[in-house]
């Protein structure tokens, strides 16, 4: 009996400890965003809200500028990658065409290639073409590795789409454009939004590929990498913590609304 | 982040409409495919060409001309073989550790917690939560938590579990620890997606046939969760083998823990030895593709690609 109950509690206990372990560096980063630190943020010197209230004050706003660059790059790469990736996903599910398996391979390979190889490859190409590295080269690089992830995410949504709905639209004399705008696109939207969020997250946190293709431009992760040897200001923790909370809110909201939708559908049908 | 990718491959294909041939397909495919050709395939070609370059005749640093100098490969292997071996060794250990860590976790979330969907999704959010905080900052957080002044290290030294002059940071231990921690979500999520769909009646059948719990686990649960194990190990191993943040001296590494990524970065961005960086990149990619190919074939999960 006692052995049984031990076995029963072992797995939940392990799960709780494992999840706590995963949270450790997050909690650490969050706590040290309130540290009344000087140049580097290593030892605890006391609680302050100052860093949260004056995020951009440090180093003439270098942290905020890097953060702003990351936002611009993330938005641009997300926009391009989501558009191109969604188009590919629709084609893959809906149409027959030659070179199907080579297309799939071309989409799979960027996900199976280590980032350092992707980054060095692009840098070698820009170097041999004499393209100067700046914001644009970072956006081009980020778009490249986001496309495959968009395709996989949106593909599942296209595959789950009931073709009868579009047929109904056509039966009611909707033009192909109308059917797409009024039926296909709204039904695909949750998948497209998920893909866009994933792209933005991938771009925002990317360091390895950025490091090879950024020249003098500093993104938020690159700022942390450069500052790591001389000390990271607590303001960086503030930005990371704020982004963390925002991402958490988005994900939890999406989960809750998906659960509510599932409940509603279960009631209806 | 590949979570969504693997979660969605799990979606059952509903009765798909018959695929048609249409010029629209080409219009939809062309822009994206062209993009990948220009910014993924062409760079790989550029990388191969660069890896065969010879130093320019004028002897300027960072100046190379196109050649067919395959000796570059011999030279980088001769010079950096410890880094190459170390990278794959560290990545392998981190992958095994992440699998051991994640399997029970994914099993609890995907199988035991099935009756409580809300708890299930809450735990999933916690598993992916590390993705929401900067990769570099969470690695630096571990650097502080494992540093000589940290509570953990001073306590370990107080109870003599650690020698007084020993360090945790800057060692193989801390690099493998960092690699394991950082890629755990990549392991847990694909495991979760397969375990979540595991049909419990198979396990009941095992019990009915008087198999022990362990025997059922080994002969039923593990084989049925193989797609998740393969996806998770690949998603952990590939980025871990090419990573250079954890092993960097400013993060969890030291002089003796440098991996192939560190060497590629140093050669490309600091020493401006592009051919060496390029040949190391090609070596890394080739080895990984061979490993992925053999591994996927042997485990019989080709449909994953």
UniProtKB/TrEMBL annotation, chain B:
Residue span, ABC transmembrane type-1 domain: 84-295
Top-rank taxon, per record: Bacteria
Membrane topology: Multi-pass membrane protein
CC annotations in GO: plasma membrane
GO biological process assignments: transmembrane transport
Subcellular location: Cell membrane
Keyword Cell membrane found: yes
Bilayer-spanning residue ranges: 24-49, 88-110, 122-141, 171-192, 220-242, 276-296
Keywords noted in UniProt: Cell membrane, Membrane, Transmembrane, Transmembrane helix, Transport
Family: Belongs to the binding-protein-dependent transport system permease family. CysTW subfamily.
Protein's name according to its UniProt entry: ABC transporter permease
Record organism: Cryobacterium zongtaii
